[in-house]
């Protein structure tokens, strides 16, 4: 038994049969050698495919392919909203990571440190005003895009039969987006933050049986304090990013596997 | 729209999906490549071999190709979206530069502001918390309320989200456009209008109108919108049917 690897596809025999010139033999040997290691066939095939697609004929549009009498071209911009929200999420994540270098909730006692660090970012830090602006606007845009995305999915019936799971996942995601927004605007600890937090505490407390436990868990007590700020901070910058990123990946992955449900 | 459709249910989507074949004159990719000579021809032959080998391996394996009716994400959707990605990112930056955020007064537990509001996207939820007047006083409990008003408000949130969640389990079938499903589209429009009106209810302190009228309109307007949408979409669907019938009779004049 030889240690040498067997040539399953019989490349040598194939080349012998062809009666090649030395130039051709050298070329083919090199090609096969490279291909075995780098799978250039695959890449060249992609390039080739692209070349013909670009040069020979444009792929038929969805409407042409399914002979739809150009009935729904006006839906098309709405099909970008999912990507748009992902994009806004990425912008928010990057700007948020940068903000994280400068923002800190107080370690102990006085939550006004949070307000002071926001003031520092907006008045003293180079580019800080723009940074907060970008973070805030991308968050606003993301929420808006997610809402509109959901409307598009609803009105084009894209949630139907094989896609129920993704619809449910989408509802979890839109809720988490709003939780992201909520925990986010609590962080500056200004009047809006404080009284929005108050509403949150009262909402949790009004839940039967589990209310007090939930208020303790989410807000660190029945009244707003430094513990509330600390928890919102951890939820906003540590917990939610991991959870939401994972869920978005699964959401998009399912779309990728199932395909886009464009109206037929 | 196809004229050979025989089934009774309304089809506004153009009938059976058939992929249009390329022109006869257009040489196929295979034909183009087979015309080449020399090294490129040799490369082509090797590639064809390699592809067949891959195909054989794939046939031997237990890999199953799934057949799901949908449009592929790559390249169609992805290319379209990548092309607008830069524009959208630029738009976010433009908004950030032109409309910078505001920072309010620092938190002060001892001074309640006159108007307490969350960010705009939670107005609907905040509005649902103000549904106390709908919380019934039950006769069997002697005119007492079963739940506290705020519990009722939180419950309203759960009901709304719960209803949205079960929509795919209620609405089946292959209808994809509003005209094809007047009922569900009308429900959707009603929902959107309700989201707006309940948001306006949330900011009732800022609304220059009678609070009772606002409360009534919050529930009346969605119903009106639902009815109007349903009527319009039904009519549009009749229009499609009329178009279909006219074409049908033009092809086959009645005896």
Features:
heterodimer; A: 264 residues; mainly alpha; elongated; B: 255 residues
Summarize the structure.
The complex is a heterodimer of chains A (264) and B (255). By secondary structure, chain A is mostly helical. Chain A is built from eleven helices and no strands.
Q: State the end-to-end distance of chain B.
A: 24 Å
The ordered string of helix (H) and strand (E) elements of chain A is HHHHHHHHHHH
Strand composition percent of chain B: under 5%
Number of helices of chain B: 7
* Unreliable residue runs of chain A: none
Structural class of chain A: mainly alpha
The main β sheet of chain A shows up as: none
The coarse silhouette of chain B is: elongated
Indicate the structural class of chain B.
mainly alpha
- How much is the average pLDDT of chain A? 86
Proportion of strand residues of chain A: under 5%
Mean pLDDT figure of chain B: 81
Explain what this protein looks like in three dimensions.
The complex is a heterodimer of chains A (264) and B (255). Helix content of chain A is 70%, strand content 0%. With 264 residues, chain A is an all-alpha fold. In chain A, helix 5 (81-100) packs antiparallel against helix 7 and helix 9 (191-205) packs antiparallel against helix 10 (211-219). Chain B is mainly α and 255 residues long. Helices cover 57% and strands 2% of the residues of chain B. Chain B contains 7 helices and 2 strands. The longest helix of chain B is centred in the C-terminal third of the chain and has 41 residues, at 211-251. Chain B is elongated. Chain B starts with 28 loop residues before the first helix and ends with a helix.
